[in-house]
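pinging the channel bc i need a second pair of eyes. not urgent but kinda urgent?? the chain im working w is below, pasted from the shared doc
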Amino acid sequence: MIINSGLNIIDSHVGLVKMMECNLDARGKAVRLFGGLFSLLVGIIIGILFGSEILIDSIWYSSSIIFILAGTFGIFEGRTGWCVVRAMGFKTPI
């Protein structure tokens, strides 16, 4: 809780809930969910190939981590219906 100078109590969670309102339709949720699942799967496969020493360059390790993080965030956006780009005020086609 935050108390401002006017002695009004402001719940800090209200701002977070307002900020993360659903701003995607069903099509946008589906695109982000399936894109996230695909990215996560690619990241896991690259990670397994790197761990098995089939891919030996360190760029593959970094790529695996990036794909896994991006996929996880895409799944989060698809499940919650919230897009970070739209929340910043940009219009996206999907």
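so The chain has one domain: 21-87. and Residues 21-87 form one domain. — does that match what u expected or am i reading it wrong
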